[in-house]
Amino acid sequence: MTIAGLDVGGTKIAGVALRARSSDGAAPASAWTEDDVLVRTHRAHRIHGPGALLDALEAAVRELDERLVEQGDAPIEAVGLAIAAWLTRDREVVTWAAHLAVRDFALRSALADRLGMPVAIDNDANGYLLGEAAMGAAAAASSSILIALGTGVGGAYVVGGQPLIGAHGLGGELGHVTVDEQGPVCSCTARGCIEAYAGGNALARDAAAVPAAVALAPGGRATAVHLERAARAGDATALAVVERAGWAVAAGLRRLLPAFDPEVVVLGGRVMLECADLLLPVIERELAAHAPLQGVPQPRRLELARLGGHAAAIGAAVLASR
User: Fold this and answer.
1) Cβ contacts of 106 within 8 Å, gap of 6 or more
2) In this structure, how many other beta carbons lie within 10 angstroms of the beta carbon of residue 221?
3) In this predicted model, what pLDDT tens digit does every residue of 204-221 receive, in sequence order?
4) Handedness of CA 225, 198, 99, 169 (dihedral sign)
5) What is the pTM of this model?
6) Which regions of the chain carry the CATH code 3.30.420.40?
7) Cα separations (Å) of 125 from 102, 130, 166, 175, 188?
8) pLDDT digits (tens, 9 = 90+) for 99-153
9) CA atoms within 13 A on the CB side of 98
């Protein structure tokens, strides 16, 4: 059996075809390896609305099938989807996908009808951590949490191979843990979330006030990339902004570690992975200086994500295999 996994972000669809380990597609998470990934694809999209979303997803599955045929592998029999969206608790309906202009759309059944095969759906952060838990940074762990620094800050909690869904389908929104009630306004309209300090948009906001970053930017429109370059060049103001982002991640983890007691903390996302040498020492230092439950031994495992841009697609395929 071959399972497709798709990860739909704001501008791209990453896809994988995953070989299942048994005739019914069931396999314990520990059984998966990267050798089970038969095909990887990546395509840009301009999705706007439910119809365009279905068309793009169907095209992505067909592309994977064509590649499988070329290799002599079995065709796809089920599809998993990790999508940058809020979903209902039953994972049937996209309540809001801002980047895709999709609202209140029964995506799972519509896609299953379009493809003529079973479909499973979760959000992109849960897919990301399911992938890392299956064959990446948290592969040997019974429980793990994810903090992913990208455009915003994604989060997830997986225990026993299952993601936390929550009463309203919004469990695991760890990027919106508050670390300072007087802090900057977040995309969620609250103040002082981890995302308001450490997401790519937040870093771009702060970069606009860093002369060294602005000087590196064409047209003077600095982004997180220009902030990173200025920090690596030794600019003190840029370094202070990056350090504040690391502080925010650590402050969030100080709240999350006692609540979830994970075996592994996975740190991922483009911003985190590209700036790991700048951010990780700050996070480690802050956690060491202000460890929660200091009277209790708590070996911490902070691991950088390992599966790259196809992590959430792999996690989606693993989800569909069940």
Assistant:
1) 92, 93
2) 11
3) 999 999 999 999 999 999
4) positive
5) 0.94
6) 2-136+309-321, 143-305
7) 18, 9, 14, 10, 17
8) 899 999 999 999 999 999 999 999 999 999 999 999 999 998 999 999 999 989 9
9) 3
Beta strands, E only, the chain: 2-8, 12-19, 37-44, 76-83, 86-87, 94-97, 102-105, 119-123, 143-149, 153-159, 162-163, 264-268, 302-304
Query: In whole angstroms, what separates CA 262 from the centre of its chain?
Result: 17
CATH class held by domain 2-136+309-321: alpha beta
| Residue in this structure with the two tokens 């395509």, named with its chain if needed | 43
Helix axis angle for 311-321 and 124-135, nearest 10°, is: 80
Superfamily of structural domain 143-305? ATPase, nucleotide binding domain (3.30.420.40)
Whether 126 and 163 have beta carbons less than 8 Å apart is answered as yes
Cα dihedral 82→195→176→123 (10° resolution): 0
Q: How many CB atoms are closer than 10 A to CB 207?
A: 27
Phi-psi bin for 72: left (phi > 0), alpha (psi -120 to 50), beta?
left
Q: What is the mean pLDDT of residues 232-238?
A: 98
- What is the rounded CA–CA span in Å between residue 181 and residue 177? 10
Per DSSP, helices labelled H in 154-235 are 195-198, 200-207, 211-216, 224-232
CA dist 267 and 302 (Å) reads 7
Taking the C-alpha atoms of residue 89 and residue 108, their distance in angstroms, rounded to an integer, is 13
Among 298, 220, 303, residue whose Cα is nearest residue 260 = 298
pLDDT of residue 149: 96
CA–CA separation, 98 vs 49, rounded Å? 10
Helical H runs in 122-199? Answer: 124-135, 195-198
3 state SS of 195:
helix
